[in-house]
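Service request form, structural biology core

Requester: graduate student, group of Dr. S.
Request type: structure prediction, single chain
Budget code: on file
Notes: please return the result as structure tokens.

Sequence provided:
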Amino acid sequence: MPPKAPLNPRNFPRPPLLERTPRHLQIKWDGQLIADTKEAYWVLETTHPPTYYLPPGCLSDPASISKSKHSSFCEWKGRATYWTMKHPTDSSETVSNRVWSYESPTKPFAAIKDYLSFYAGPWDCYVDGELVQPQPGDFYGGWVTQEIVGQVKGGPGTWGW
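Core staff response, request fulfilled:
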């Protein structure tokens, strides 16, 4: 596969852009595949690495996920619902509020209704086989790959960007 062109998040649009991505996304928890798709969307927003939204049907075990009580609000997409995930081999282990979705997104983001977005941890997230790094900080859920160039929002000194 040829190298991917560099992506500089400072050149991403505001308001954000939503588009289909043909990239192969996988999420593994302790080596167990929990999500796998080539039917995702990504959101590109100024100073943020891409945030990926996966169809709920890509989960290896749809019963492994349940709504949590947490929610948040995005000025572009609307109210986010958060989820609790059960570990694939130990159902007594759960992680809450590291997966989110939009049940009633704003009109420009209607295509990602009920699609799931995962923070890059505690599980491992992959884009076309590359293990991603989480966006700095613990507020945003972008996935950083080798093609991302320049500084991204989330680290020290970037809060006001």
